Structure formats: structure tokens, C-alpha cells
């Protein structure tokens, strides 16, 4: 029964460009229906496009979305250690113009897909970093929302909050925002939550922050615990929190994208 349920999920590579850079992403959707459906831009962890992101994309496809796994580094570059991952993520996060351009190139590709309703697009990002100060996926989607990207809903998992876009003006943010973080994540400081609240309240953003007691960074990734031990980083998978956060995100995205 599992094989039959998954048989309709298709994952196709998509080569596209951002200026002169060649990007290699993936579109993931259920081909059991021909109907247009909401689209979700997925922004990967600082390691690049990993098995975890592919698995999360398949889950979204099963829920009735077309997911587009964005390539934020170009040529589908990946890293297998924190030094290289920090260099790759830093090359994007240090330059908000590059970050926005890479994200928008992926969003444009998603909107072109035959299976997508371009009027209903959201974004999901996964952080998995911090050893050298660079979070990635979660920070990217939050920054894009702050910058006024044309998104209906944005969810950030274990997102670092040291954001690098200007504080938004009232009414400038179109997206509703959900942040799902570990309450014991040492990479996220209390003052960063305070600063985010101040900015988001002033801009009249519809947002919610959930902090899960006992959870640390990367709680959605089954490989996190092993990587945390290998590189001496506070990373740990938490199956219970992963399930709870996924349920929250599922309800949140459906409320705005599938209505």
C-alpha cells in the first residue's frame, strides 16, 4: 500500500538561471491529478539540497502542493562539513541582493509549472547551521517575507532570527508567517525574539512563534543527531517535536493556500 500511495509522486530536476549562474532545483508533485494546486518554494539547509529536503518535498506533494526545491548555491553545490557549509551559506546571506535574486528565480520557476496555481504560492525554509553564524533556509524565507515577496504564507523550521533585511513598513508584508523553533536552541537568542516581535508588531504582520520545550536546532532532520555528534554542534532530531511542528505547519499552510 505504501508503494501504491507514493507511486504518483513525481520529482523532476529543473535547470534554470539566476543571471549568469546555473541553478539546479527540483519540482515535486502528485501526478494523480491534473488540477492546478498551490505551490511552495522550499529553501534548503546550509548543507545544500539534502535527502531531508527531498523527503519534506514529497510530504508536501502528498498534501496537495507542488513543491519547488530551490538551489540557492548554484550547480546544486553541497557541503559535508561546517566550514564549507558556512562558506556557501555566507556567500548568500552576506549579500541580501543575491539572496533575494536566487529566491525569486526559484519562485518564478515554480509559478511556471503546469501543476501550479501562480496566485497561491508560499515558502518553507529549514535552518541547519549556526556554527559560523549563518543559518540558511529558515532565515531566507523570513527575510523574503520581510522584503515583501509575493507569498501568501511562510513557515520557518528551527529558524535563526538574525535577519539581514530592513525592518518592514506597516502593510508591506503580504505573507502570514509561522516560526517553529526549539525553545532550547542555543543558536537563537532571546533578544532576537524580542527584536523580531518589535519589528513584526510595528509592521502589523500576521505571525505566530512556537517554541518547543526541550528541542534544539535541526529537530526535523533525522540525520541531525549524528551530525551534531560528528561536528560537536548542538543539533538533535526530535521525532515528537517534528511531528507536532509538521502538524502545525500543515494546518497553517492549508488555511492560506488551500482555501
Give your account of this protein's structure.
- The protein is built from eight helices and eight strands.
- It has one domain: Alpha/Beta hydrolase fold, catalytic domain (Rossmann fold, 3-Layer(aba) Sandwich).
- Strands 1-2-4-3-5-6-7-8 form an eight-stranded mixed sheet, with helices on both faces.
- The protein is globular, with a radius of gyration of 17 Å.
- By secondary structure, it is α/β, with parallel strands linked by helices.
Q: CATH superfamily, called what?
A: Alpha/Beta hydrolase fold, catalytic domain
How many separate structural domains?
Answer: 1
**Into which percent range does the helicity of residues fall?**
25-40%
CATH fold type: Rossmann fold
Beta-strand percentage range: 15-25%
SSE ordering: HEEEHEHHEHEEHEHH
> What is Rg?
17 Å
The CATH level-2 architecture is identified as 3-Layer(aba) Sandwich
What count of helical segments does DSSP give? 8
Averaged pLDDT, please? 92
The CATH class designation is Alpha Beta
By DSSP, the count of extended strands is 8
Terminal-residue CA separation: 29 Å
Q: Segments where pLDDT lies below 50 for 5+ residues?
A: 1-6
- Report the structural category: alpha/beta
Give the overall shape, derived from the CA principal axes: globular
Describe the largest sheet: 8 strands, mixed
Strands of the widest sheet, in order across it, are 1-2-4-3-5-6-7-8
Helix and strand topology:
Blueprint: H1 2-6, E1 9-18, E2 21-30, E3 37-43, H2 51-62, E4 66-70, H3 82-93, H4 96-112, E5 116-126, H5 137-146, E6 153-157, E7 176-182, H6 190-202, E8 207-212, H7 224-231, H8 239-257
Parallel strand pairs: 3-4, 3-5, 5-6, 6-7, 7-8
Antiparallel strand pairs: 1-2, 2-4
